[in-house]
Write a structure and sequence with these properties.
By secondary structure, the chain is mainly alpha-helical. Helices cover 76% and strands 0% of the residues. Helix 3 packs antiparallel against helix 4. The termini are far apart. The model has no long low-confidence stretch (mean pLDDT 92).
Length: 79
């Protein structure tokens, strides 16, 4: 939905403590989380303010966010 938060903590509330623990000790995971949340903020801002961007740009950003989310979930499940 438009304007919903899809940051890592909202997407995986059951892993909240684990997310923080892994972020503290794994710089690669922390970077994935940061990039995911940055993309989420950008997408939300574009949607909420009806910014004039190409549909393909917005869809590409959403695909990138989904790929990061999948990678983050994979790490959470196997760590």
């Amino acid at each position: 939905m438009l304007g919903e938060h899809h940051d890592v903590d909202h997407e995986f509330p059951e892993y909240h403590e684990k997310i923080d623990q892994i972020s503290d000790r794994d710089p690669e995971f922390a970077a994935l989380r940061k990039e995911h949340d940055r993309l989420d903020s950008e997408i939300r801002e574009l949607e909420l303010h009806n910014q004039p961007v190409a549909d393909t740009y917005l869809e590409d950003q959403k695909k990138k966010r989904a790929l990061l989310k999948d990678r983050i979930y994979e790490i959470l499940r196997h760590t």
